[in-house]
Write a structure and sequence with these properties.
By secondary structure, the chain is of the alpha/beta class. The protein contains 23 helices and 17 strands. The structure holds adenosine-5'-diphosphate (ADP) and zinc ion. This is DNA 3'-5' helicase.
Length: 554
């Protein structure tokens, strides 16, 4: 597909320079354009900042007819259209919020034989709910004016992904109605299972897949234990490494955003907060200040991000645990789009895990923004989706708890990509620690912990189990007469951190399950450990061992 002998090659190169001001193509751009212009269905996996827009905007410009672009977010669409109009490319969009007369005018133009538009953007709801739009597309198609259908952020189709949107699933209708129109599906995030879902749901035929490495060599990754001093740490980190530079701090709850922003302001930073419940005018104001560098730091929920095109974001800090590795990768991807060195720091605490898990199970975790009313993961309570979300979260936990393997490798494995950690060149915390490790068989301890959870009736928290295990005689232990248990103090010889790491490992590996007891979404949440019988059985009868890697003492 990299050939320069296609009939359109000259025109392509000329317009890339003249209209878009680019001197060359970035990796895969030429190939993708050639494949879609040859009439194939194409699936593109390209990291954020890779240059996906050009792969449909340039063909739209040089092909006869109109390119339909489905994009999840009105603000993203507006941003794109602004850029297109600046480059003198006629583009428009249809949305439900528009005045009826305005919609009518656009439809009239689409019906004209000399229609000026090259690109028509719509949100997925529009496709699902508007017969008017479908009829319009049929009419364009009948007149051979429907050049191409582009599905941006295509991972939203998949329930396995982190941004599932029900309206995306209805997009399969487009291929049914217009089987001869090439579809171009684009995403910056997809695992193998997501990719399959997308291809299937959209009904792509013999689709050609382009994917490139998701490694971002200019991003430096680290995970830092989150303590009570976390905000001091963040302040210090920014002052020492990124003074007066731009960054995003992702927070779990809306309240956290406000608290973190306030604290950073007190420390002298130009910080603001951004989340789903601030009103649109305020939101637009913050975005504008941010793009004009009047604000350096945005403390945001994941509602902030998609469509953020600022090239010089120098750091992305996660004040709490992200919900999945995919989400984390994408959020970090907003740093360093200009290719300059940037930092991605994650503050991790186990109690945040409990908190996020609870939010997910209640369906109150804030998702990426899209249109108002859609920023809640309202299907999160249902079985399969809840299970997937919890599993995604557990993977994120094991990423954080891993203080041995290369962070890049751990992320890329998740995207089905092989990575040689030698190429990390010590740009992650784990690679830069020069230390050696030993493997330890902790099966015996693991068994005892599982037994202890059973003995205490599967109704206590992990911290209580650890207290009993390490022989504490605190009031709570005594109240429940747990000092009389045979396993009281069985883990006396272990360091607290070691015992707790083993216990967490048992949860991550599904030997034990953590159930949230009290429901206070924004406050403290307690949880109890339960035994996962089927998995734990293998451990107890000696059919399975538990091995952990520990840094060797030097
Ligand atoms: P994505 O959608 O993959 O995140 P964009 O399409 O927004 O990425 O492109 C990211 C940035 O790269 C934009 O500022 C765009 O102008 C720029 N860009 C895209 N293609 C090229 C190219 N061939 N040469 C130079 N800059 C490019
Ligand atoms: Zn590394």
């Amino acid at each position: 597909w990299s050939s320069r002998d296609f009939p359109w090659t000259k025109k392509l190169e000329a317009n890339n320079k003249k209209v878009f001001g680019n001197h060359s193509f970035r990796p895969n751009q030429r190939e993708i354009i050639n494949a879609t212009m040859s009439g194939h269905d194409v699936f593109v996996l390209m990291p954020t900042g890779g240059g996906k827009s050009l792969t449909y905007q340039l063909p739209a410009l040089i092909c006869p007819g109109i390119t339909l672009v489905i994009s999840p977010l009105v603000s993203l669409i507006q941003d794109q259209i602004m850029h297109l109009l600046q480059a003198n490319i006629p583009a428009t969009f249809l949305s439900g919020n528009m005045e009826w007369t305005e919609q009518q005018e656009i439809l009239r133009e689409l019906n004209s034989d000399y229609c000026k538009y090259k690109l028509l953007y719509v949100t997925p709801e529009k496709v699902a709910k508007s017969d008017v739009l479908l009829r319009q597309l049929e009419s364009l198609n009948a007149r051979e004016l429907l050049a191409r259908i582009v599905i941006d952020e295509a991972h939203c189709v998949s329930q396995w992904g982190h941004d599932f949107r029900p309206d995306y699933q209805g997009l399969g209708i487009l291929k049914q109605k217009f089987p001869n129109t090439p579809v171009l599906a684009l995403t910056a995030t997809a695992t193998a299972s997501v990719k399959e879902d997308v291809v299937q749901a959209l009904g792509l035929v013999n689709c050609i897949i382009f994917r490139q490495s998701f490694n971002r060599p200019n991003l430096w990754f680290s995970v830092i234990p989150k303590t009570k001093k976390c905000l001091d740490d963040i302040d210090k980190f920014i002052k020492e490494n990124h003074f007066d530079e731009c960054g995003i701090i992702y927070c779990l709850s809306r309240m956290d955003c406000e608290k973190v922003a306030e604290r950073l302001q007190e420390c002298g930073h130009k910080a603001a907060f951004y989340h789903g419940s601030i009103d649109p005018a305020q939101r637009a104001f913050v975005q504008k200040q941010w793009s004009k560098d009047e604000i350096n730091i945005i403390c945001a929920t994941v509602a902030f991000g998609m469509g953020i095109n600022k090239p010089d974001v120098r750091f992305v800090i996660h004040h709490s645990l992200p919900k999945s590795i995919e989400g984390y990768h994408q959020e970090c991807g907003r740093a360093g789009r200009d290719g300059q060195r940037s930092s991605c720091v994650l503050y991790y605490s186990y109690s945040d895990f409990i908190r996020v898990k609870h939010m997910i199970s209640q369906g109150v975790a804030e998702q990426s923004p899209f249109t108002p009313g859609h920023n809640r993961f309202n299907v999160a309570n249902s079985g399969r989706v809840l299970e997937t979300n919890t599993e995604n979260l557990l993977r994120m936990v094991s990423y954080c708890e891993n203080d041995v393997d290369c962070r890049r490798l751990l992320q890329l494995v998740h995207f089905g990509e092989k990575f040689d950690s030698a190429h990390c060149k010590k740009t992650c915390d784990n690679c830069s620690k020069i230390k050696s490790f030993i493997e330890k068989d902790v099966t015996d301890t693991a068994k005892k912990l599982v037994e202890l959870v059973k003995l205490t009736g599967q109704q206590f928290s992990s911290s209580h189990i650890l207290e009993v295990f390490r022989g504490s005689l605190n009031q709570f232990v005594k109240k429940h007469r747990h000092e009389t248990l045979s396993l009281h103090g069985a883990g006396k010889h272990l360091a607290k951190s070691e015992a707790s790491r083993i216990l967490r490992h048992l949860v991550i590996e599904d030997f034990l399950m953590e159930e949230v007891k009290k429901s206070d979404v924004y406050g403290s949440v307690s949880s109890v450990l339960k035994v996962n019988q089927s998995k734990a059985h293998n451990l107890i009868i000696g059919r399975q061992n538990v091995v952990l890697r520990f840094p060797s003492a030097i």
